[in-house]
Design goal:
With 55 residues, the protein is mainly α. It contains two helices and no strands.
Length: 55
């Protein structure tokens, strides 16, 4: 929780309502989770994929 308070204190979230802090952190966590999942799938299935560029 100390990390959470430090992040909120040192960013523009300081002074915002609690619902706004929670929504922004939830959105950030969802984006990071999505990126990590996509990177994991790329590492697992990437060598077997055939990617063609063009029209």
């Amino acid at each position: 929780m100390d990390v959470y308070h430090t992040i909120v204190k040192n960013t523009s979230l300081n002074g915002m309502p609690i619902w706004f802090k929670a929504t922004s952190l939830l959105l950030f966590s969802a984006i990071v989770s999505l990126i990590l999942a996509m990177c994991t799938m790329l590492v697992m299935y990437g060598p077997n994929m055939v990617i063609r560029f063009g029209y």
